[in-house]
Amino acid sequence: MAEFFTSFGFWGQAVWIVIKILVIVAPLLTAVAYLTYAERKVLSAMHLRRGPNVVGPFGLLQPIADGLKLFLKETVIPSGANRAVFILAPCVTFILALIAWAVIPFGPGLVLADINVGILYLFAISSLGVYGILMAGWASNSRYAFLGALRSAAQMVSYEVSMGFIIITVLLFAGSLNLTDIVMAQKNIWFVFPLLPMAVIFFVSTLAETNRHPFDLAEAEAELVAGFNVEYSAMTFALFFLGEYANMILMSAMTTILFLGGWLPPADVALFTWIPGPVWFAFKVAAVLFVFIWVRGTFPRYRYDQLMRLGWKVFLPLSLASVAIVGGLVAYGLSPVAG
Amino acid sequence: MILQALAFYLFSFVAVAAAVMVISARNPVHSVLFLILAFFNGAGLFVLLGAEFLAMILVVVYVGAVAVLFMFVVMMLDINFVELRQGFLQYLPIGGVVGLVLLAELLVIAGGWTLAPEAASGGAAPAPAPETLSNTQALGELLYTHYIYLFQGAGLILLVAMIGAIVLTHRHREGVRKQRIGDQLRRRAEETVKLRKVPTGKGI
Hints:
The structure holds 2 protein chains of 2 kinds.
Chain A: H1 2-6, H2 9-46, H3 62-72, H4 83-99, H5 118-139, H6 143-174, H7 179-184, H8 196-209, H9 221-224, H10 234-259, H11 270-274, H12 277-298, H13 304-331
Helix pairs in contact in A: 2-3, 2-10, 2-12, 3-10, 4-5, 4-10, 5-6, 6-8, 6-13, 8-10, 10-12
Chain B: H1 2-24, H2 28-48, H3 52-76, H4 81-86, H5 88-115, H6 117-122, H7 135-146, H8 148-169, H9 181-186, H10 189-192
Helix pairs in contact in B: 1-2, 2-3, 7-8
């Protein structure tokens, strides 16, 4: 296929890249739609309710109906809003949620751009997610939205720091910034085992980074109505919604790549190796996503000062210490990665 | 090659245009947003140079952290926009002089490179050959092997600056009630709850 397109020179290559992008984005958006469905179904099961069950068999068409509804509604722009920034904010959120997928390896060689600094790229993109929220909160010219945005900005900046340190511990073991190399370094043992406490801290930090329960103070409905997106309607709201869920999937994919061995099967046994890599990858991402929803159904929301305390006084010292410990292990040749 | 040249001109043009907008935008928040755009295009130029590590660090540090704090502060400022514009002409000559000095310095450096290419490499440690190492490794080698003392010195200066900032701005207020997690966890039911049988009609 690739040779067929590249034989047409520059334009052929361009078309081939667009096809590859579509192959990634189309399933991703479907996954986002059905993640909302899965969230409602899992939560309802935890609450002993039925959840969506009217539209289509088992309510399977519910996300499509929701999407259509949002598409047909009117986009309201408040008169006091800063128009350009107001419209730019959901676009930024959505675009950032999509472009990060360019470097995610779905299987051996199955990656759009196999760049050398893949993990840094992911970290950079995820640290930009705060802009969509900050811009939305400011441009809405509404107190609820502004408070939500400020909370969210402080929270995301705080938890990024410990996330960065945990990524460094993984890098010290893997010895590379390339995501494919990081996955291949876990051939013998997934990093979740030697780095178990770090994996847990990383997962909790991703909860905070995506503004999910129990850290969803940016949109705490009890005190801020809906937080930063309170003034948004129709498609602008839908873009925030899609962006948030795409970010959840992205963070799960990051957890999978860094700690759960990416597309690698749990053991090099015949039965496991028959299942192709991307299926393993999707399965692990789905498992992490289930924990995202499980946490939402289980924990009460954190108070804001407790959230900050957890980030700066608990996670940061722990992850700093782990960088020193893991660095020492690697320096004395005790790395679990062979070679 | 033509594609690379096009990308270079695109990034440079947007970077310069965004930089002009930073100083000419009426609204400070728009200024910060344009500043972010300029940073992004700077990162794009780094990628074109093959310095992808620096490009990503530029985005992580400047866009992801510094500009967020900028934005944070600027968004909360209560600014009179008209008042802000008034000093513009007054400060223009000073700004112009600073800009000219920087331009002259850049020209001297660039001139030195073209006139005497061997002089530039004389004092510096040799950079590892790009074929043998990825640029992240090459940068690490230079920083942590050849320039370790300078690197640590820079780190210490930053640490002093950080401690200084905290000491100068941290105010200790009396009478603030704080949550003490340790005390809370140390409490036992026996110490804090007393169960009493209250006789009807008598109270305690």
